[in-house]
Q: What sequence folds into this?
């Protein structure tokens, strides 16, 4: 299937959509990486911090409010998951950074960005058929 056929398919698909229907997606989580600007000793974090799942390469640290989980790497990167809004994610990541700062690491909050958002929609006005994608990507 070439690009012009693909464009015609989407035009026909959008023409069949009723304008009275609306979709209201709700955010169910996001992935937001942060660089802390310093190396981290995962053994020290495992011994001193609460709510830590120990793994020699990465560690998971959890918070109750907002309900989030951070994956912490020795390079000083944190990946915060589970927050349902940007504000909750920022607050949770700042709390994770503050926990590490209290453990004695020289933490600075760098490169906070949105990497992935997971949303759910209860009713969607368009029927999505992915069969064309399979045929398109085979060739």
A:
């Amino acid at each position: 299937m070439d690009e012009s056929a693909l464009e015609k398919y989407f035009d026909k698909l959008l023409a069949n959509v009723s304008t009275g229907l609306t979709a209201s997606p709700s955010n169910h989580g996001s992935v937001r990486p942060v660089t802390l600007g310093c190396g981290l000793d995962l053994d020290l974090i495992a011994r001193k911090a609460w709510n830590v799942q120990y793994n020699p390469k990465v560690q998971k640290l959890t918070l109750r409010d907002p309900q989030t989980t951070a994956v912490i790497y020795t390079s000083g990167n944190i990946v915060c998951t589970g927050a349902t809004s940007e504000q909750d994610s920022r607050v949770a990541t700042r709390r994770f950074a503050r926990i590490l700062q209290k453990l004695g690491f020289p933490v600075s909050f760098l490169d906070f960005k949105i990497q992935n958002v997971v949303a759910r929609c209860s009713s969607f006005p368009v029927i999505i058929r992915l069969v064309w994608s399979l045929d398109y990507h085979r060739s």
Helices lie at 3-15, 42-48, 86-102, 131-138.
